[in-house]
Amino acid sequence: MRHPSVIARRVAAASVSLVVAAGAAACGPKDNDATSAGADSKPQKGGTLTVLNANPQEDFDPARLYTSGGGNVPSLVFRTLTTRNRENGAAGAQVVPDLATDTGRPSKNATVWTYTLKKGLKYEDGTPITSADIKYGIERSFAAELSGGAPYLRDWLIGGADYQGPYKDKKGLDSIETPDDLTIVFHLNKPEGEFPYLATQTQFTPVPKAKDTGTKYEEHPVSSGPYKVVKNENDGERLVLERNTHWSASTDAERKAYPDKIDVRSGLDSSVINQRLSASQGADAAAVTTDTNLGPAELAKVSGDKALAARVGTGHFGYTNYLAFNPKVKPFDNPKVRQAISYAVDRTSVINAAGGSSLAEPATTYLPDQKSFGYTPYDHFPAGKSGNPAKAEELLKEAGYKNGLTITLTHSNSKDFETSPEIATALQDALKKAGITVKLQGLEDNDYSDKIHSAKTEPGLFLAHWGADWPSGGPFLAPIFDGRQIVKDGANFNTGFLDDKSVNAEIDAINKLTDLDQAAQRWGALDKKIGEQALTVPLFHPVYKRLYGKDVKNIVISDWTGVLDISQVAVK
């Protein structure tokens, strides 16, 4: 995702994108004790599902949401051309048709994508959904007052970079054609084999032009999904959804829509959420959370209780926490210094600082440990479980630092178990063994984000993380390592300022592929090649552990989101 602060929100909200996000592949269903929960009886329709969240479901407008796979709560109301496959583990990392009859038909060079809508699609008021509505929904996402969604359409569509949205430019985008009510054609300015993944974003939700109320649309967006909004209080703090009687399961193979009503309550403290889910009293017995993990202390308590442990869903979202180097700042301009730090890292202590092995898994690759990303195992600077200070010292001497060196590590003061003081301190202790004195610079979250995302102020060494807009290597590697995406005046995410013609050319070549398995292999090989330059030190991938109420059934956790899929849940 282009902006890690958005990612953090999305992952927290289990969109994950999320966004969050939304999810190593082999670990999905295998260690998910929740998959067999409620197997004593078949899921039934009816009842009210309560959602207990810390963060409100803000900006509930399909134009403004930044999701992965359409999000969790949003995908109950907003259907899109394609969506994520709602299955456990690795199978859930696949893109499947939603409003469309297939995942898209590309031209030979993947610059033109054509979709045909299913017949019989209707809004909550019974009116038909047309291709023109999808075109309009996309166009309104270009309006400045409705910004916030994924930026890809602005980059990919011909004319997208200059388009100001339908309120200012009523002519619309010529690069989106609707020759009839069921057909929509997209013309791109460069080959994009992963367009079917992008078509899962909520910007591809149909919006009837006659019902568009601009910035007020979020209060009552017109539903194309199994539920409609009947209440939206305090910008998503309380969201109540009831059945859309015009939704038909015959046109929707993905959403189960078991509960009659979904009551989303936000603004709660995370410890309160976990206490309520643990107790499972009253309405909380049929409750879930889409944004609150179990912390280390809570997990220890839950693990000692068999009944509670059986109500924990385990998942993985494509997300990597890492150390980032700025090679423009001395001594990190010297590759041997970067390699020395890579060898000195003690991943065991880092994982302990992140909450322990139940909540974090060691990473030596930048890409997450999932097949869909093209995960290719490598460890160019093997530090073992607890670091290799001897090798680090050897490299430092070769770099001209025989008496060691002193460096500064910038981190956030947020207690997020990712870029926080605990992680920074663990690294400080490990590097000390290699003769590297680490001074810690802790910043408040907003200051930290501003500093590390500016090309002018980026520090030499800092903690960072990146999550997937969709489960592929493209949105993981391109924003961080494509030299053409270096932003000099604005938010920059190519932290190593890598501008390698061979890397840029390979990114372009992979983007032309419409065979996603073949593309995945190429992304993995590219990750391995870039890793040799030691521009980052991958540290760990998070594991999501979330409680759910005792009356909740049909738990599905895919590797796309890494969290319970609310569209599959049933309640007693």
Which residue ranges are poorly predicted, with pLDDT under 50 across at least 5 consecutive positions? Answer: 2-39
**What is the helical fraction, as a range of percent?**
10-25%
Query: How many distinct beta strands?
Result: 21
| Contiguous helical run count | 15
**How would a crystallographer describe the biggest sheet?**
5 strands, mixed
Percentage of residues in DSSP E strands: 15-25%
The chain-level structural class is alpha+beta
- State the strand order across the main sheet: 8-9-10-1-11
Shape: globular
Ends apart, CA distance between termini: 37 Å
**What is the average per-residue confidence, as pLDDT, rounded to a whole number?**
92
Using only CA atoms, what is the Rg? 23 Å
